[in-house]
Amino acid sequence: MGVIDVEHVSKRFKLYKDRPGSLKEMVTKFGRKRYEEFWSLRDVSVEVEAGTVYGLIGHNGCGKSTLLRMMAGIYKPTEGTVRTEGRISALLELGAGFHPELTGRENVYLNASILGLTRKETDLLFDDIVAFSGLEQFIDSPVKHYSSGMFVRLGFSVSVHVDPQILLIDEVIAVGDEEFQRRCFEHLASLRNRGVTIVLVTHSMPLVQTMCDQATWMDHGVVQASGPSLDVVGEYLAQVNRQEGEASEAAAAAAAEARVEKTGAPLTVEGVEFIDAEGRLTQFGLTGEPLTVRIHWRANVDVEWPILSFAVDSESGQHLSTAGMQGRVEGLGPFRGAGTVDYRIDRLPLAPGSYLLNVAAHDPRGVTVVDRLDRAVSLWVRPGHRLVPGILDLGGTWGVPEGVAAR
Amino acid sequence: MTAVTEIWSYRNLIYNLAQRELRARYKKSILGWLWSLINPASMLLIYTVVFGTFLKGSAPDMGNGDSGIFALYLFAGLYLWNFFNGTVTGAIAALQAGGLLNKVYFPPACPAIANTLTVLLQAFIEAGILLVVMIVLGNVGWTLVLFPVLIVMVMLFALGFGLFLSIYNIYYRDVGYLVGIAMNVLFYATPIVYRLDQVPQTLGGIPIRRIITLNPITQFVGWSRDVFYLLRWPSLASTIGLLVVSVGTFLLGAAVFNRKSRLITEEL
Q: Are strands A319-324 and A307-314 parallel, antiparallel or unpaired?
């Protein structure tokens, strides 16, 4: 028995085609069914153990937020039961219940009471809450003068300080600046260490991989996989990649044809593959492990030497690095037709997460781009032998400490 | 019963919601809290001029034997009407604006109860002013000890009514509009700006005075005037009747609300 037991829960919503709205419509449309039924959840069972961090993942509209609201007691199940133990704090929307005309101070007390705290309890926590939000200077101004970031920071700060036994979080951590996010994660980690049970709805796979013990992947209201988070994320990503792969293959094939016909580029990029240490095709890279990027190209005319490059962008679009081909081997070429070229990485320096590759083909001097495949493929990186926070694994090794030996 | 204990455990939230309401109400106004006096005062002035002076409305003699003062007679009913009206319409508005219920769990009756507290405070202020005037005029008596009973009865009656209507207003917004009109009708179907004995026994065959007498608000207003103005003890029959009606309305409204509000978050 966990602290949250969701047993065979189904949830039906009524989607009104045409809301009844007025009495006249009620009379004229009497007896007609005015809504369609929509099952947001179908026979979902989830058990969350005390003191663990649980991730809920899946596409938009898969039912994970509905499930979270069920756990919070906001929605009642149509079928099945939801049982929870202990004080719940739900972060479905930060700063919910803030009144714009009231000051930050007044809103802290208000919000804390919404989350179930008494005035005395709030008095004790007040300084911590304000310090965490970093808004000491503005705490006595009306929150309508706050920026959206400040608003959310204060809301988050209240929510995580109410000392919940269960914390339900819906996508809200992706707020504030880097520094505040870091503090959020540190605080969540310390809550976890204190034995708080956390349920997290998120689209960020690295977050699930690094924070969650267990996870459930949902699709169209049905549980697809449940278990240790790394396995569940793996299954989810594999499926996402399959779907994306199918879509992008079709698109790439169509694009390739169109490109040749339209531009008549001498050299075109046909596709990208990843190959792991054992020489097998893979969808994933592993941090600190070897990975080979294989680019498929086609020379549409006689090409002296194919010059290719690829750029790696982070999920947020930040350009991390570009690898361009240099030099050529005497006695090889010219080429014509299809071919491949490998870029071998001995130790993949990327931390777990997802990255995008943009591939380009250049003219023989490597100056102008003759063809490009933007966002050609996603590279999903999973943790290898060691866990690396941040975006890069520096790949170094620590020496032995040198100093004076204690007696 | 579990609903009651649950709401009790959220009393701090109710208090804070009420406080938020009050604090935010007069922010950014120069006169601030004075508005809570100016509003009823302006109503009182208008009704006194129109119904007392123009239409020559008169009031019965006061409990201490002094000749009647129309404005005070009117106000002894008006503050109670304001309390009833504010509680019912406030309960409907509180649930309709309850976007918060979608984000955090708490008993859905909390906003309506919090609103009732703010209206209650206003009623105390208005009744307090009435009391001060009565003390100055030397028209006070032991009947005033019944004031808390009266307020609790009206509160139960109005809250039961408001909770009941607030649920149906979520499904059919017509309810809110209808209540607006019904409140207007009810105000004039209650002897507040006139006296009950000015109403004809029948009007086109309809026993109009009987109907107005049976209106619970008429009875509540009558009680209030007994307590504050006429200084006489209300009749036992009317007391028992009002107790039954107010407790009954509250239990019925609360029961319907409790049953229906289970799924209300999906409709907000």
A: antiparallel
